[in-house]
Design goal:
With 321 residues, the protein is an alpha/beta fold. The protein contains eleven helices and 18 strands. The structure holds nicotinamide-adenine-dinucleotide.
Length: 321
Amino acid sequence: MIIVPEHAIAGLVSASDCLEAVEQVFAAMARRSARNFPVIREALGHADALYGFKSGFDRESLALGLKSGGFWPGNISRGLTNHQSTVFLFDADTGACRAVVGGNLLTALRTAAASAISIKHLARPDARVLGMIGAGHQSSFQLRAALAQRHFEKVVGWNLHQPDLARLNAVATELGVPFEAVDLDRLGAEADVIITITSSFDPILMAAQVRPGTHLACMGTDTAGKQEVEPALVAAATVFTDEITQSITLGEAQHAAAQGLLAAAQITELGAVINGTHPGRTSAQEITLFDGTGVGLQDLAVASVAVDRALDKGVAITVDF
Ligand code: NAD
């Protein structure tokens, strides 16, 4: 069995590796050769923790396994990150445990890859202003991956707690793109692409604030009850997602679906656009919205890259198991 510890991931896996791996698995999902199994997420009744599993199997790459982990709110005071996850990969031919891989950085990279892939396939080619809503841990990964997808000339950002926008300013400055903190009206009026990556349970961005032609990547809503944009905005957009079942139950589309504003049949898997079986954006005026709910197959895809890289570089830790 191979172990790839958390501290080794940064030296093994790049954002572009993750983009390629996630794009391939989204495509495999839309071809029905990869599927996610039902998600388990439970409150433990201990340490205020939420714990769960996301698992699946890709018959094309033979990635089989699960990501296990969750949210421990008290971890910050212990010097640990609140979100903890580990990926377990199994041999698809024998069921033997193949690898245990640190999943914290990989989660941020695979989530940023998903929104970047949506921008790559759905944003207008002439998109020049990127809007960021949210400035937490995930946001800098999101910004970095998004800036690689178009010739963005400016980043505008909003966060509930404005000082945290320094995190986005630092990434934009490092990549040579000007950054400005703005209110939500200006953000919607200026941005061609908007990423939402917050833990909000109420709509932040309203339909009236978003221009025709905008591409939205709604990435924060991954649990029943969470919400980042007004359901009327979801209903006004052409909606794409990683997985339709998750989109209408725990993703951003859950509220529009519950209110009867959007049917599951109106939502398209991003993999269909990657495969060329759906045209994606069809006009410069259309609002496109990617509901990135986060699927286990993304985790298996990027963890598999980490294992391959560790083997290639001769740094894989192998143990008899
Ligand atoms: P974080 O705790 O570091 O940051 C939280 C962010 O949400 C901050 O910007 C904060 O200001 C904002 N926020 C919190 N409550 C808000 C409110 N009521 N209104 C507006 N903004 C509010 O979290 P993070 O690690 O950056 O993760 C952000 C979100 O992304 C979480 O909800 C997390 O569950 C989700 N997430 C989704 C995926 C996926 O695959 N879709 C993957 C990882 C994380």
